[in-house]
Amino acid sequence: MSDLLRGFRKGSATLADVNLAYRTGGKGAPLVLLHGYPQSQVMWHAIAPALAEDHTVYLFDLPGYGASGTPEGGPARYAKRAMAADIVAAMAQLGHHRFAVAGHDRGGRVAYRMALDAPDVVTRLAVLDIVPTGAVWNDFSVARALRYYHWTFLAQPAPLPETLIKADPVDYLDRTMASWTKAKDLSAFHPDAMAAYRAAFSNPAHLHAMCEDYRAGATVDWTHDDESVASGARITTPLLVLWGAAFDAGGGRSPLDVWRAWHDAPEGAPVDAGHFLCEENPDETLRHLRPFLAGR
C-alpha cells in the first residue's frame, strides 16, 4: 500500500469505539474518498494523486475494512448513518467541518447518507456505481437478485456466510471481483492492491464486519432510506453520479434516472468499465470527477 499511495501520509482517527485508518495528501479544499466492498482506501491509488493536485485528500478505511478497527454492536453499528457519523467526527478532529465526498459502492452509500443527515457538512457529493439502497430493495427483481446475490447471502445471520467464505476467502474474493469487471478477470487490479484486499478479507474479524455491513443494508439502511423518502428528504448538495456502462447498477434503468427521485438536478454519465471504475478506467473517471469537484 505504501508504494501505491506514495506521497500520502498515514494517520489514524480515534473515535469512541473504533480507530479509523486514513491517508492524506495534497493541497486545497478538503475531499474525502470512501471505498467500497470488498476493498479499502487502496482502490483510489490510480486517481488520488491527480485529485490531490487541487484538494487536500483524505482516504479513509471504513469501519471493518482495510486497516480500520472492527467495532462491535451488530448491524446497527455498520449502518451507513453510523459510518457517516464516524467520518464526520474524524474529519472534525482533523479540523474540517465542511468537505466534499466521493464514494464508491458501500462508500457511496455512506456518502449519500452523510449528505442527507449532515447537509451542512457535505459541499459536493459524487457517488460511483450505486443507486440508493432503498431503491435497490424496493425493486428487487429476479434479474437483480441473481446479479446481487451477495446482498442476500452476506446478510444471512451469523455465522453462516462467514463460515462458508472462510473455507477459501481468497478464491471467493477473486471470483467475486472478477465477475464485476467488464473483462471478467482481475487484469484491472494492481497486484499490490489485490494483496491488500486479500489480506483484509482473510482476517476473520474483518470478514465478519463486512457481513455486518450487508446485514445493515438489508435492515436498518433500508429503513433509513424509506423514512427519508416518506419524509420528503432530498439531497441538496451538488450531486455527480458515475456508473460502469458494463455493470448495470441501475437494475435496467439509468442510475441517473433513479437518483432524480432523490435530487432535483443530478449530473452524471456512464464510464467504460464494469463496477470498479477507478481501477478499470481511471482516466475517464477523473475526466468527470475533476471538473465537478472544482465546481466547473
Describe this structure in words.
There is one protein chain. This protein has 296 residues and is of the alpha/beta class. The chain has 14 helices and eight strands. Helix 2 packs across helix 3.
List keywords for this structure.
single chain, 296 residues, alpha/beta, eight-stranded mixed β-sheet, 14 helices, globular
Q: How far from one another are the termini?
A: 32 Å
Alpha plus pi helix count: 14
Query: Overall mean pLDDT score?
Result: 97
Helix percentage:
40-55%
> What general outline do the C-alpha atoms trace?
globular
Oligomeric state of this protein: single chain
Taking strands numbered 1, 2, ... along the chain, how are they ordered across the largest sheet?
1-2-4-3-5-6-7-8
Rg result: 17 Å
Low-confidence stretches: none
Question: β content, as a range?
Answer: 15-25%
Number of strands: 8
Could you give a short account of the major beta sheet?
8 strands, mixed
Write the element-wise H/E pattern from the N-terminal end onward: EEEHEHEHEHHHHHHHHEHEHH
**Structural class, from helix and strand content?**
alpha/beta
